[in-house]
Task: structure prediction
Amino acid sequence: MGTDSSFIRGTLDMLILRTLQLEPMHGWGIAERIEARSDALLKVQPGSLYAAFHRLTREGWIRSYWARTENGRRARYYALTKAGERQLAVETEHWHRLAAGVARFLASES
Amino acid sequence: MRWLTDLWFRVRALLRPRAMERELDDELDFHHQMQTEKLIREGVAPEDAARESRRLLDGAVRPRQEVRDAWGVGLLRDFLVDVRHALRQFRRRPAFSVLGILTLGVGLGATIGLFGVISSVLVRPLPIADEAGVRVFWTEYNWRGVEFDFVKERTGAFRPLAAFSSVASTLRGETGSTVLQTALTSAEFFDVLGARPLLGRTFRPGEDRPGAEPVVVLSYGVWRQELGADSAVVGRRIVLDGRNVTVIGVMPRGFYFPTPSYRLWMPLDLDPASRNYQGNGWLVLFGRVRDGLTEAQVSDDIASIARALGERFTYPTAWDKTRGAMVRPVREFLVGEVRPALLLVFGAGALLLLMATASVAALILA
Result:
């Protein structure tokens, strides 16, 4: 993890789902929000981002539709599905456990 | 409904790949524009902003490749994912899954079962050597013994020629009696079929004439089930319809004629002095076409037989053997009447499978 795109795949999925939990958003907006809400610690590569959208769509966790943005541009919006909501809960839980485990491991005396 | 979105996705990817690519292009374009504007807002010169944005999109080429990879190439991986998904679904909703599996099972089972019957009746070879050469004479189960002997003398095209009919015989065993369908045959029966016995022999000339010792040829099934697969069965006496009959042979496994329900073969008693020989017709005539004959020669032979029959015998109009003289392939004789019925039943089975599939689809969508 760092400022580049070397996310663990599941982690990016989780960030996307979390972002969409607030409201439906287009790809660029999602990348912006992830960046902003992590205080620019996390940057998302567009390639991985759009690949993730398709993966998540196939899983049925998000769905997409075309709509106009506030300034009138056509954009593909993504929204969280019920299944996606459940998946987010699962992944968040996993993440907390993993993070806690790693933190404990690093804090322990060697 | 994950499978549904997934299916929809795949169908679209399969049928309308262009549309999906175009949508992706539009999406990436939008991203590029937004990124460019953002950079401009942050004070980057427009040209630089566009370049920078493009760079971030990696020329919009790499993302597309990554997306395409995410569309799920690799059939095997997809297959494994499907299997895992199926197992997960099964664990989650076992009752529903069992219902679906049963419904499909019934549909598939019926279709496969019927296909098995069809393939054995219509496609699989009969237990006859060179099936194409064996023909059955017109007016089945309607020939008298005297006519059989007459035709046998006259025909030049069919050699050998044989006759058979059908009775039920009762085999007395140690524990009880069994009724077995039996073919009564002329001595040439097995020669026409080109069938050889597994044990012992088949009939010799003259064994179908008066004064011959009563003998029987067993099917493989009767030999195993009724006589304990006795390897010394040839020469043994069994009691059929209260008469002592000598077993002379056992046919190999898989042999049957005319149908698998016939379990025994015994010689006819072609006695010119008997009323049976002269009286009502009850035989099927069939023979093997001699090698090298053309169909025209066979037809000529049949026509001349019919003429000769008309000169020798007088027939009532309803049973006139001189009319409609023809021979047909032995398979047609055996399955001719069941063929349309079988195909119909198979069609019904296929329809059942279709309905089962539709029901399961309805269940899943419900």
Remarks:
- The helical segments of chain A are 9-22, 27-37, 46-59, 82-107.
- Chain A has a mean pLDDT of 84.
